[in-house]
Amino acid sequence: MLDNAVLLKVRDLKKFYPVRRHSFLKERGYTKAVDGVSFELNRGEALGLVGESGSGKTNLGLCILRLREPTSGEVVFKNQDITKLKPNEIPGIYKDMQIIFQDPYSSLNPRMRVGEMIGEPLVIYKLVKSRIEKEAKIKMLLKEVGLNDAFIEKYPHELSEGQRQRIVIARALSVSPTFIVCDEPTSALDVSVQAQIINLLEDLRNQLSLTYLFISHDLSVIKHICNRMAVMYLGKIIEFGETEKVCSSAKHPYTRLLISSILIPDPTLKYEHLSLNDEIPSSIDVPAGCRFHSRCPYAEEVCQNSEPVLTEIERGWFVACHLLI
Ligand code: SF4
Q1: Residue to mutate (ligand 1; options 295, 323, 324, 325; most atoms within 8 A of CB)
Q2: Helices H / strands E in the chain, number of each
Q3: Structure pTM?
Q4: So what's the pLDDT on residue 1?
Q5: CA-CA distance, 142 to 150, in Å (whole number)?
Q6: Domain containing residue 187
Q7: Is residue 311 assigned to a domain?
């Protein structure tokens, strides 16, 4: 892969939150929400990020966009380390990097009309020179997300959930970004609308050469839209590879359990019929050794004492498990 194909490089990214009994007392530990994550994202690809709630997926997405301040590590976007940007330089990156959140209603200003909301970034980033140009661009963006000019005068409460998420997408597209973090963009929507939004996001990626980091707990969505996927557990990536391969023959015991517990039963998959009943341990008290050992059916003594490193077991396929490396 040529280096200029790489759009985003994340290096040893960490996000720790201090834990205190009272705000004025010294910290007594840290919640390790993101604990040394590294990966690369190529231009035009959709990388899926899966894991249970509390695995650190959303924190990772927010740190990449500097919407949360990382504790340490690098985020190199188009050859620029954005963790080094000064606070006044950060808004400039949102001309090229955007996010679509889970809940479209809370992402929209209830007092603004659709046209104003989509037009706002065009004005802030000086992307249009006149009111006529702005109106034409708003109409074009609405068309791109499958809506018509009649929506310009509407308020969020006059729209359906699916229409609201289309407006959120249109607003994200208004600055012509290269990269979008899609943070569970369909999980707050009705099942009947989810497929429409997924198909829209997929069509837009193809038409506009967008690159996605697609965060979801829904593996069927990841399978549909992402060419590669990363599985997170307690702040770390524990398996990373091509979506087809990982879903059909996952190597890490956690990935196998995750797939067997949430995928629609598939007779071609020969995974353990176990479920992830135990709760994910607290990220304040991350287990020593392999952080999955307290729930792993294959744990051995070595798993309690030594942390496995993410290792390439096949070209482009990485796993962190002592039994495989
Ligand atoms: Fe299970 Fe040990 Fe592998 Fe961790 S390293 S996933 S505990 S077998």
Answers
A1: 323
A2: 10, 12
A3: 0.91
A4: 45
A5: 10
A6: 6-96+177-319
A7: yes
Identify whether 274 is part of a domain.
yes
CA angle 212/181/292 to nearest 5° reads 95
Answer yes or no: are the C-beta atoms of 142 and 152 closer than 8 Å: yes
Q: Of ligand 1's atoms, which has the minimum distance to the CA of residue 298?
A: 8
> Whose alpha carbon is nearest atom 3 of ligand 1?
321
What are 194's two structure tokens? 């989810």
User: Does residue 163 sit within a domain?
Assistant: no
Task: Give, using CA atoms, the residue closest to atom 6 of ligand 1.
Answer: 321
Residue 296 CA: which ligand 1 atom is closest? 1
Tell me the average pLDDT across 153-178: 96
Q: What is the domain count for the chain? A: 1
Contact (Cβ atoms closer than 8 angstroms) between residue 8 and residue 37: no
Residues 234, 202: contact at Cβ < 8 Å?
no
Helix (H, G, I), strand (E, B) or coil at 146: coil
- Per-residue pLDDT averaged across 257-270, rounded? 66
* Ligand 1 proximity of 288 Cβ (cutoff 6 Å): no
- Helix (H/G/I), strand (E/B), else coil: 161: helix
Confidence of residue 278 (pLDDT cuts 50, 70, 90): low
Pick the more confident residue, 297 or 64: 64
Give residue 277's pLDDT. Answer: 54
Distance CA 139, CA 134 (A): 9
161-173 and 131-144 helices cross at what angle (nearest 10)? 130
DSSP state of 22: S
Higher pLDDT, 16 or 268: 16
**Residue 72 belongs to domain with CATH number:** 3.40.50.300
Is the pLDDT confidence value at 269 over 80? no
